[in-house]
Amino acid sequence: MTSEIHCDSLWHGADIVTMRDGKYHTLSNGAIAVRDGKIVWLGEHAAMPATLIADETVKFDGGIITPGFVDCHTHLVFGGNRSGEFEQRLNGVSYAEIAAQGGGIISTVKATRDADEERLLEQALFRLRPLLAEGVTCVEIKSGYGLTPESELKMLRVARRLGEHLPVEVKTTCLAAHALPPEYANRADDYIDLVCNTIIPQAAAAGLADAVDAFCEHLAFSPAQVAKVFAAAEAAGLPVKLHAEQLSALGGSTLAAQHHALSADHLEYATEQDARAMGDAGTVAVLLPGAYYLLRETQCPPVDLFRKHGVAMAIASDANPGTSPALSLRLMINMACTLFRLTPEEALAGVTVHAAKALGLQASHGTLEAGKVADFVHWPLSRPAELAYWLGGQLPCTVIFRGEVRQ
Ligand SMILES: [Zn+2]
């Protein structure tokens, strides 16, 4: 007698776009069996073992199933917003005048420091819900607008609480080395000491950070300062990521690769040496078309070099108040195709399998395979390229998070 394979639920009636190895690898008329929030069997429905018994069966009327989307780079927690500056700039006020009025990132730092946790949580929920509505099941959230030990930890606590308030997997990143706080003007090395000796160790000890990030740029921190931040992260047992090569080529992404960073992000000015180093280290290139678009940049990230050197490319919203107030990851997929010339298959890999890798979650998330978490999305679409093709709007979808329909 053959023993039964018992599972909680069985989902079928649609084509399953598995995204295994970064390719569609579609199973036509597929089936997914789920137990305890994980995929226990997946294949073509016709090939399903007769011994597989499900408590509940859901049959879709056609369409496709993709892995849940992973937004692997966001700054969703912040006080206030900068729509006033957006309007001022379009009315002809210069960046210098706005900065002189206390605008720019420092205005967000002030608003974030002033806001209590409940207020920050409420504002972040407002931004997170639209991302979830279009299929995001895992989101990374960075600190970086507090820039004091207390307010950086406050941001990270709010990020963790978002994952308790809504059905979504949250990964947190300590980005204390995001900008120089005004009280440390002309004392960047002193601030880096605070980041390395106090903020990162405290965030790690409190279990509030899953990774450490920094902003390597002329207007932020130098590669030498970033190297100190990475050393502090390593001492705390945390993996690293880096905002690199967004506005100039400083070699930050090569530095990140040398530290086996999970990802280097932005990368408009990355060189072939950077791409080679990232490919060798397995560091993911996270492309952020929202910031490129809003800043009206003209230099695209070197997508051909990333392909040549086998660098996995992820796409993220970079949701932030200054350069990418993006509340749609699907719009970013479209922009990655139209602005950066990714193929729709590469762009979908960029919000699934490669985005999961950029968070160190490749063993559990990002593809539809037996053993992975049962996070997936049913779309009433004829082919996955439609996810990149439709511009804006909200496509109807059914999101399954850890094996259950998310309301
Ligand atoms: Zn960012």
From TrEMBL:
Enzyme Commission designation: 3.5.2.7
UniProt binding sites for N-formimidoyl-L-glutamate: Y145, N320, G322
Keyword Cytoplasm attached: yes
Main location: cytoplasm
Gene3D superfamilies cross-referenced by the UniProt entry: Metal-dependent hydrolases (3.20.20.140), Urease, subunit C, domain 1 (2.30.40.10)
Similarity section: Belongs to the metallo-dependent hydrolases superfamily. HutI family.
SUPFAM superfamilies for the chain: Composite domain of metallo-dependent hydrolases (SSF51338), Metallo-dependent hydrolases (SSF51556)
Domain of life: Bacteria
Reactions catalysed: 4-imidazolone-5-propanoate + H2O = N-formimidoyl-L-glutamate
Subcellular location(s) of the protein: Cytoplasm
Broadest EC class assigned to this enzyme: hydrolase
Cofactor note: Binds 1 zinc or iron ion per subunit.
Chain sites annotated for binding Zn(2+): H73, H75, H243, D318
Designated name of the protein: Imidazolonepropionase
Role of this protein: Catalyzes the hydrolytic cleavage of the carbon-nitrogen bond in imidazolone-5-propanoate to yield N-formimidoyl-L-glutamate. It is the third step in the universal histidine degradation pathway.
Named cofactor requirement(s): Zn(2+); Fe(3+)
The Amidohydrolase-related domain, residue ranges: 64-381
Pathway: Amino-acid degradation; L-histidine degradation into L-glutamate; N-formimidoyl-L-glutamate from L-histidine: step 3/3
Residues reported in the UniProt entry to bind 4-imidazolone-5-propanoate: R82, Y145, H178, Q246, T323
UniProt GO MF annotations: imidazolonepropionase activity
Organism: Serratia grimesii
Keywords for this protein: Cytoplasm, Histidine metabolism, Hydrolase, Iron, Metal-binding, Zinc
Binding positions (Fe(3+)): H73, H75, H243, D318
UniProt xrefs under InterPro entries: Amidohydro-rel, HutI, Metal-dep_hydrolase_composite, Metal_Hydrolase
